[in-house]
Design brief:
heterodimer; A: 338 residues; alpha/beta; CBS domain Like; 6-stranded mixed beta sheet; 4-stranded antiparallel beta sheet; 16 helices; 23% strand; B: 290 residues; mainly alpha; MetI-like fold; 12 helices
Amino acid sequence: MSAVIEAKNITKIFGDEPETAVRMLEQGASKTDVQAETGQVVGLNRVSLSVEQGEIFVVMGLSGSGKSTLIRHVNRLIEPTAGEMRVNGRDILGLDEMALRQFRRKELAMVFQNFGLLPHRSVLDNVAYGLEIRGDGKDERLEHARHWIERVGLAGYEGSQPNELSGGQQQRVGLARALAMDTDILLMDEAFSALDPLIRSGMQDELKSLQKELNKTILFISHDFDEAVKIGDRIAVLNDGAIVQVDRPEDIVLKPADDYVAAFVRDVNKARVIHISTIMERDLESPCGFDITATASCEDALPLFAAHDALAVTNEDGKRVGRITARRVIAALARHAG
Amino acid sequence: MFPDWFNSRPLRSAVDDALEWVVKYWGGWLEAAAHPLLLLLNSIERFLLAIPWWVLIIFFTAAAFGATRKLALPLVVFLSLIFLGVMELWDDAVKTMALMIAATLTAIVISLPLGIWMARSALVRRIVTPILDLMQTLPSFVYLIPTVMVFGPGKVPALIATIVYAAPPLVRLTDLGIRLVDPNVLEAARAFGADRRQRLFGVQIPLALPTILAGINQTTMMALAMVVIASMIGAGGLGYQVLQGIGRLEVSRGLFAGLGIVALAIIFDRITQAYGKRLQKRIGVSGGAR
């Protein structure tokens, strides 16, 4: 595992006197202090994070927390006031305009909350857009675009205009356009937030299954904690432009760093987040009715308890590593509820 | 009475002298520079007069059908053209059409780059906007007379005056159209590594096209509104018939030539508008769900 995206102390000040604001932040002032004293708006406050190869890293925060500003620093759609940003080991803040364009064309692709499709082009030409910008040949890019249109389940819509499609279908086009670039890094800015709940859930499942195959590095922005928990390998919680906690979903739910995070976690479905491995007994002997994997969630285990009192917990190789009882699951859920 | 703060006579005579100086020393050069305009206008006029009347009627009726896919507009266009022919206004109408088309084409060539430049630079917009305001509000006779002095009476000053009057809406609407392009789409283009040229021709101009078409429509209409005035300095065409009707107190001549101008206006306005609407519909509301 190596860091693909590495942000160090990224600070973004909106205003005409950024230096003063940066100095205040370095001395420990908060976003509110800075704004009250200098009138400068703090977008990001010394954000450092590192996204590993092959993980889905979710940045979670309410509107105004700076999450959309943060993701735009990764491909320099927004320039930081201070800090460092390395992608694939390269300092991207040092790139000149041409190198930056090449970087955007070859190393990462982005999916947008409002889709950002070209309304005057067909679905096929939209998906091929990035390839066209990059300068790929016509036959090659159209064939590639067709492939990805099929992969996201839009076969048959190649000739449609974006405004003839539903929101979910439009975002599939946006996703296909990004995937067609064949980049290792995918930036997704609230990609599913504009969709209906049912469609959103379906798209989340699809992203997860695509990711199993593609193994990309995905930086995903969301304001929805359930979404973050569902798709994220790790989650960073952002508040007032600063990172409050970075952890695995389960750890964030079980050990929130502060009241702000705790408030988010309160309504999360704990049964889905808590893994069996976290609460199992190291009991390898007692008889059990059924097997369950250690990475399964409490939610997966609950229906099994209708027929069995205890389950044997196994690792990926099918070897028994522990035992879980209904009593233990219920106790864990009760402990973390509300 | 307003107090006499200073004597404005030297200022006035300076302006008059300056114009005379320009006419004297630059007149030939300016005339040569405007010669391509005359060539453009004459070739359009000759072309339109050379093709048989029924070809023009079929062309415009077909264009109307192509734009609306309904029968109503083609019928109106057909009847308008028949009216022009029956009233013995055909040649004059074609001359007026040529002036309008030449003015519109020239206005497009000037206005599109200028409008795009305005959309990209706040400074340019601050400078150009008052000039456009001036062009639209200054009574046309005020610049008509100096233009005639420089170029001599004829088609060239008429064409220039028409362009000055008709170009501003196209410049404004090009600027507006480019600036109104959905920033989300533009950002997406940037994120995929599109450079300025790719963004301009691949995103901004195509998405601004319905607005730009509305500007072209405005320009054609304003050019038509100028034909009577333009005919005073030698443009000929329907405007000249109106002028003669007024001069000779022949109400019928003025009336029917005037109605001929209306017929031309209907033909060009409705066809370009219908094309604009089709385009707008195809592009739809940009940006998707919000």
